[in-house]
Specification:
- With 252 residues, the protein is mainly β.
- It is built from 3 helices and 16 strands.
- A 13-stranded antiparallel sheet has the order 8-7-6-5-4-3-2-1-16-15-14-13-12.
């Protein structure tokens, strides 16, 4: 494989990783939709990065004693010639009084060479996050309201539905806690392959980082993200658009 193609492959995997990472930090806007817990769902997105493309799915399902939330991201078309595999993240969740608490988190990345894995356990009684990241042992104190980078999706969608006023979540990502700054913009029409929606835009970035994300969240879809944009500086690097969705269970 030529150096240019290898560079594209590495850049594509980088965008896959940050696109999933970028979904997890949304402050609430205060628009109440329901006090019930959000319904289970399955959503699919098409991802574009330059001439490369991929597919992303988000799924929330009821597990009987809680919920399981799962995301996956994989290259398609030319990108799949350069890198095969997927990035899959799974977390088990408990809910109480409308709040969301993660029990654990696993990440399996078969696009990377060699494959990469991460796993964390969130032990509220012990007040610790423990596990493994890049073959290194993790043991950190919990933070109040702490989420992992995908349990935050569910926690914030639920907060938006119930009208809670939230400024940020501490999110455990890549073996450490991270804090982000946010800007909330008014709802505007957004076009996607699955339809047109009025969506609130949330822009955010970590301090001292020129990378930023915009998420467009549709109230009519219980605040599912319909578009996700990643930027470096002022340049858009990738864009994910909702292509299909269905609600698979009623809210509780």
């Amino acid at each position: 494989m030529c150096k240019a193609m290898l560079a594209k492959a590495k850049s594509w995997r980088f965008v896959l990783v940050i696109l999933i990472a970028g979904q997890g930090f949304w402050p609430a806007t205060g628009h109440a939709a329901s006090d019930a817990f959000m319904p289970a769902f399955n959503a699919t997105y098409k991802v574009r990065y330059g001439v490369l493309s991929g597919t992303m799915t988000l799924e929330l399902r009821n597990s009987g004693d809680g919920y399981v939330y799962e995301t996956s991201l994989s290259p398609r078309g030319v990108a799949s010639w350069l890198r095969r595999g997927e990035i899959r993240e799974v977390t088990r969740l408990l809910t109480a009084g409308g709040a969301v608490r993660p029990l654990d988190y696993t990440n399996t990345d078969t696009i990377a060479r060699p494959d990469r894995y991460a796993r964390y356990a969130f032990d509220a009684s012990a007040g610790r996050v423990s596990g493994e990241y890049k073959s290194q042992t993790i043991d950190e104190p919990m933070r109040d309201g702490g989420q992992n980078r995908i349990s935050a999706h569910v926690a914030i969608m639920q907060a938006l539905r119930s009208g809670e006023e939230l400024s940020a979540f501490p999110v455990f990502d890549r073996g450490r806690w991270k804090d982000y700054r946010f800007e909330i913009l008014p709802a505007e029409p957004v076009e996607t392959p699955s339809g047109d929606f009025d969506a609130v835009e949330v822009r955010y970035a970590a301090a001292d980082d020129d990378r930023s994300w915009s998420l467009y969240l549709a109230e009519d879809l219980d605040y599912l993200p319909v578009v996700i944009v990643f930027r470096e500086g002022d340049k858009t690097k990738s864009r994910a658009q909702l292509t299909d969705y269905r609600f698979t269970g009623a809210g509780e």
